[in-house]
Amino acid sequence: MTLPRHVRLVEVGPRDGLQNEKRPLGLADKVRLVDDLSAAGLEYIEAGSFVSPKWVPQMADSAEVFAGIRRKPGVVYAALTPNLKGFEAALEAGVEEVAVFAAASESFSQKNIDCSIAESLARFVPVLDAARAHGVRVRGYVSCVLGCPYEGEVAPRQVADVARELFAMGCHEISLGDTIGTGTAGKARALFEVVARYIPRERLAGHFHDTYGQALANVYASLLEGIAVFDAAVAGLGGCPYARGASGNLASEDLLYLLNGLGIHTGIDLDRLIAAGERICAVLGRDNGSRVARARRGAS
Amino acid sequence: MTLPRHVRLVEVGPRDGLQNEKRPLGLADKVRLVDDLSAAGLEYIEAGSFVSPKWVPQMADSAEVFAGIRRKPGVVYAALTPNLKGFEAALEAGVEEVAVFAAASESFSQKNIDCSIAESLARFVPVLDAARAHGVRVRGYVSCVLGCPYEGEVAPRQVADVARELFAMGCHEISLGDTIGTGTAGKARALFEVVARYIPRERLAGHFHDTYGQALANVYASLLEGIAVFDAAVAGLGGCPYARGASGNLASEDLLYLLNGLGIHTGIDLDRLIAAGERICAVLGRDNGSRVARARRGAS
């Protein structure tokens, strides 16, 4: 029941967040966002995605983003690379760490990326091979770990199977994502308890969505299970594609507020993080999804 | 670490919620709200407040509310009664259980109710005496238990002192309120751990505000401490007077979603609760503060 002393925040706002925002964002504002985040003390920022612009037009300028940012020493700037072509483009853009993703639900895999879970994993083999050859670390995402929009409940064992395969293929860290946000604290604990039988806890991360308001309770539950890496998006960037108008990514500010309250070290400056979120929300013309940011604004 | 099997929700929307809404609500809509909530399965509803209408004009028609509701057997309809005059009016209106409130912070007590903590407690003595004489149970609220807008941090020992006095005076249940929502999970646990040295856990309740997004994590932390009564307001009614535009009360729907996920029994129907919240938000012309309600709406 002792909590981790240090937690690493994986900031996914510039990628997972912006990719799900309705309004496109210009290159300069993307670069500014990433630089604001590194200045706030984030040590791991997912800054782009190297996929076909036909699939994800919002990420078409990821190479330019990587060329434009001021690289702060000690900060990892990562990108999503679903295939070898994407990996090679990322490598050319100077990306230091990449990520691949698979679903824990067969239906979600079929509907989201048009292939089975096994096929998606097979596609990553060349990416992992190339990454190994170039000394690039690969992070693995598993989606729908606490529920699927098509199948409903997802068994922890099913998640563990996919996570194990990604880990065996060479992913150094596996992020378990509650894509639709239906997970609750007891199920989050049970999931990590099962997956940690096969993968060391220090190689696991929690990626919770706040669609049903459960994200921070799930984080606290995961901390109690010894999980010490969490994904979040500044200002809660990115909505929920499965529930229009609802929240998606957990806001990094709200996560940091919890961790600060628990006395857990992150190296992140809350005020600067809030300022980064307020700025990007003003540019996007959207509400700030962080309750901490809204409370601070109202109290000032 | 075993969680309670049954949790009682104390619905404070019709009182604590509406009292902090900008738009006044007509009598018929108040009555309808209370009846919707009892129909949804809530077993404890704080339906009004017997205070001077000069202080709280929104609650001036509480006697009419109590006269208008359909009393469902097994449901407790309670009211706030800060003094003997209020208690007598509540008694006349057929209120079955009343509540008194004190602050854990001296500055808050002075600024909020214009007297010291000790003076406020002394004022409740006649209320408690009269309640005992009439066989009416009294619930005690303690505010600012995890932070004060004027003093900042509040020591658990300070909270325990006020809670003990209320308990010793005859309050059957003490609700500990994080009035400004700055509390985090570790501090919530530590607080209950300290207060439970003096008051049995089954006589304690948690009242968390979601201003900084921490309410559900605090609930989960409290459940781990054996707390089994939680206050919440349907649709998150009531803003935060200390941060304009920010969230106040935890939404009952979001709390129920967590409890359902944990397999904890409450007797409440989530769909009917959501419908009650959607209706009152439409009448008030306000956004629904429940993330669960918003997610369900977007997913339909």
Automatic annotation (TrEMBL), chains A, B:
Q: What is its EC number?
A: 4.1.3.4
Which pathway does UniProt place it in? Metabolic intermediate metabolism; (S)-3-hydroxy-3-methylglutaryl-CoA degradation; acetoacetate from (S)-3-hydroxy-3-methylglutaryl-CoA: step 1/1
Q: Which GO terms describe its biological process?
A: ketone body biosynthetic process; L-leucine catabolic process
Extract the Pfam families matched here.
Answer: HMGL-like (PF00682)
Q: What InterPro entries would the database entry show? A: Aldolase_TIM (IPR013785), HMGL (IPR043594), PYR_CT (IPR000891)
MF terms in GO: hydroxymethylglutaryl-CoA lyase activity; metal ion binding
* Domain Pyruvate carboxyltransferase, residue spans: 7-274
**Has UniProt tagged this entry with the keyword Metal-binding?**
yes
Against SUPFAM superfamilies, the record matches this protein to: Aldolase (SSF51569)
Which UniProt key words apply to this protein?
A: Lyase, Metal-binding
Q: Which NCBIfam families match?
A: PRK05692.1
Q: Which family does it belong to?
A: Belongs to the HMG-CoA lyase family.
Its name, as the record gives it, is hydroxymethylglutaryl-CoA lyase
| Organism annotation | Azotobacter vinelandii (strain DJ / ATCC BAA-1303)
